[in-house]
Amino acid sequence: MKKISDEEFSKLPLISSGKTSPFFNAIIGLHVGESLFISKKEWKGCQTPTRICHYIMKKFPTVKYTFGKLADGSGWAVKRVK
Question: 15, 19, 30, 32: least CB-packed within 10 angstroms?
Answer without folding.
Answer: 15
